[in-house]
Design a protein that fits this description.
Length: 351
């Protein structure tokens, strides 16, 4: 067996949840690290501008990640492999790339400029209950009452975090309620990511990881760049070639984008959507810790309350996951015992 084959065999033996759990601290720290990078850039102006602006972080960070992905998975881009993908596969890849590679990160980065990192982290937890609801609706995934109650509790925690915030400068009226623009952008991003996850699970489970990752990152970056040019103008990327920017983005792109997304995608393919949703619910814990350690950002009363309710939802959901896993183990054991009993009656034993 070749070295690549041995590595593939080894990774297949690792439970999907391990990949998901390894991705969580990376995702949790991403917002705090991004904000910190923009602060570093503000202390090192180039031509009178911040070279590490949020748009530059997303654009150049994704370019660095794309280069690494091409080195890692370039061999998968063979004509025979690409021809095996149907038009539906390519359409799904394009939709996922736009939603999770351009729209969602663009909204989240804009939100980071308007509200606290802790708000971005906590409100971003709308994604797990939305993903769970969509998985039941579109994928017919079976979940138990504990998981549903946990998802509802997490949703309530996010709502409390949004509407108990003190008045801010950037506020707008939605259905008679005042909500911060940054918070609203994060909520929309969470919906985009939830839809992307469902499409990926339903349509793209058989697409090679390298092709999936490169298309998602490359097309997402291109769509974001064109959109930013239209919305903000070409001057918005004036410092995009700054060496100071690129030295930071190489590290950011490799760790946050490549490693984080690769771990998450590998874990998602080997796990159910409900399991991935519950695991991702622990992201706020990592995110709040990172915001405190990296930025010294202390949670507000609304964030403490909303975060506590979200944590309760996580615990309840974990009970549901444990019960479902235990039931599956029992069903498997009972099935094996029944097969052994039948084999014994006919005088046959499998090897």
């Amino acid at each position: 067996m070749t070295r690549q084959g041995k590595l593939h065999h080894l990774t297949n033996r690792i439970p999907g949840q391990i990949y998901l759990w390894l991705a969580i601290p990376i995702f949790g720290a991403s917002s705090a690290v991004t904000r910190r990078l923009t602060e570093i850039g503000a202390q090192n102006f180039v031509n009178g501008q911040n070279p590490i602006s949020l748009c530059n972080v997303l654009f150049v960070g994704n370019l660095c990640a794309l280069m690494v992905l091409m080195l890692l998975y370039g061999r998968e881009w063979k004509r025979r492999t690409l021809r095996q993908l149907s038009r539906q596969d390519w359409l799904s890849l394009v939709i996922v790339a736009i939603l999770s590679g351009a729209l969602a990160p663009g909204l989240i980065f804009q939100a980071l400029a308007l509200t606290q990192v802790n708000n971005v982290v906590l409100i971003g937890r709308l994604e797990p209950p939305l993903t769970l609801a969509l998985s039941i609706w579109f994928l017919g995934e079976r979940v138990n009452g504990w998981e549903i109650v946990g998802a509802i509790a997490s949703f309530i925690g996010v709502v409390l975090t949004i509407f108990l915030q003190p008045p801010e400068t950037n506020m707008m009226q939605v259905g008679g309620f005042s909500i911060g623009v940054g918070e609203l952008l994060v909520a929309i991003a969470a919906l985009a990511l939830a839809v992307s996850t469902i499409i990926g699970k339903k349509r793209l489970s058989k697409v090679p990881l390298g092709i999936y990752s490169i298309v998602r990152t490359g097309l997402g970056t291109a769509v974001f760049f064109v959109s930013a040019l239209v919305l903000y103008g070409s001057h918005h990327f004036m410092d995009v070639l700054s060496p100071f920017l690129w030295q930071w983005m190489l590290a950011y792109g490799v760790v946050i984008v490549v490693v984080g997304q690769s771990l998450w995608t590998a874990g998602l393919r080997a796990s159910t959507v409900s399991t991935a949703s519950i695991v991702s619910s622990f992201t706020p814990v990592a995110g709040i810790i990172a915001a405190y350690l990296v930025l010294g950002e202390v949670p507000s009363a609304a964030q403490y309350l909303g975060g506590s309710v979200i944590l309760i939802g996580i615990i309840v959901s974990q009970v549901g996951i444990h019960k479902k896993t235990s039931r599956r183990v029992i069903e498997t054991v009972n099935s094996m015992q029944a097969e052994q009993a039948i084999a014994g009656k006919v005088g046959f034993k499998g090897i």
